[in-house]
Amino acid sequence: MSSTRVERADGLVTVIFDRPAKKNALGAEDWDILRRTLIEVTDDPGDRALLLTGAGGNFSAGADLSGSMNSGGGRGLTGGEQQSILFEMRAVGEIVDRLHRLPKPTLAAVDGVAFGVALGLVLACDLVLASDRARFCEVFVKRGLALDGGTSWSLPRQVGQRRAKQIAMLGDEFGADRALEWGLINEVVPADELPKVARDWANRLATGPTTALSLIKRSLDGSDSISFAQSLEDEARAQHIVFTTHDMREGITAFLERRPPKFTGR
Hints:
Elements: E1 4-9, E2 12-17, H1 28-43, E3 49-54, H2 68-71, H3 85-101, E4 106-110, E5 113-115, H4 117-123, E6 127-131, E7 135-137, H5 151-159, H6 161-170, E8 174-175, H7 176-182, E9 187-189, H8 194-206, H9 210-221, H10 228-242, H11 246-256
Parallel strand pairs: 2-3, 3-4, 4-6, 5-7, 6-9
Antiparallel strand pairs: 1-2, 7-8
Helix pairs in contact: 1-3, 5-6, 9-10
């Protein structure tokens, strides 16, 4: 049975890694549920935002290295038939890429540890909240491993090349305050307030103008690979698209009527 739970309420999909005895280390079933959930969120107009978090005081210790890949049981990292490590890691990479490319806003709420590939999942989200007791680590080098989880791409873009090499090549743990200083996360909150603050942020995303949020996400994610002139053209096209939505009309009407907007995602 999987240790990952999926909850839905009012447009918000919450994925909870729930294996406290192993600090929510990710096994084959967890990867499979995450993969299927990301496909569902992409396809279902009722799913408007995703919150990724962990239970029992931790986000996740990363991949479960005691699982099927070492047991000879025939199951791969993500639950399918075991393949060579190249293809196994490509399967994991496709899941992380789905999270990164999800056309709806995503939030990671991190308590306790976010190590290894779990840090990759965190950095693939749009926004990151962390408790004051959160700890982060690119632990790969301590296991004789190279990077995965997309962190060879996400780390240098968020903290710069020098800092990324320090984090990846030394493999030291660092806390939430350091992560905030380096630009890896958005905010640090007391541990007992993290669930409430995360839910508040996630609900704001889930009740926002879904099409506008999707276009904002795409334009920011792609901004480092295009010119300023192209970004202006893309903004013009995005505005043309949102002008066709019910949410844009509701936003303008609410402004004129001096009331909060009630977006429906349409």
